[in-house]
Amino acid sequence: QLQLQESGPGLVKPSETLSLICTVSGGSISNNYYHWDWIRQPPGKGLEWIGSIYYSGSTYYNPSLKSRVTISVDTSRNQFSLNLNSVTAADTAVYYCARYTKVAAAYNFDYWGQGTLVTVSS
Amino acid sequence: QTVVTQEPSFSVSPGGTVTLTCGLSSGSVSTTNYPTWYQQTPGQAPRTLIYITDTRSSGVPDRFSGSILGNKAALTITGAQADDESDYYCALYMGSGVWVFGGGTKLTVL
User: What residues of A are in contact with residue B57 (Cβ under 8 Å)?
Assistant: First the structure.
């Protein structure tokens, strides 16, 4: 069974960089049928897609966050990561990593991590 | 910037039918947006209900169905049950690898 697990600091200071890692277990990250995404949810609010990465390293980002976001992949560790710089309180959210599948044209985010709350505060 | 619109809240009686919609601030939703519907309960990650407009994900009861109605994507729940009380999010593919989620609909069953 595929599992995704987010890890990283739960508290980040304003203007600093938020860094999270997603570890994938039970399957390989190196597969062209999937890409690996970050999605966030501010407390009490809706979901916001942040961006995605293929194992090859190709990335796609939310235009509204693109200037501050970097997503990278480490296939040797079966991990992908999120860096969001110059954070403000508005970046406080539960951050989810998720797998997006194209297998059998079933285009959807089919596996999600449990989510990790990151609070931006001094 | 493209905004995906959903009703903020909806209420349905047990056994009743409700249709939630997912639109675009500019333009119409089509099958090429690969409309996807997710259900989220408090403290949990979302789970897929419907993908590519009208295909139910594995294990999803057939009381959930998806469609295009007019210029919007729609999620219909026929015979609502108490445990359908959740937040529902649609997601649309906007091209160039970009996905946008709607603001979500809080469904109450009472």
Answer: 106, 108, 110
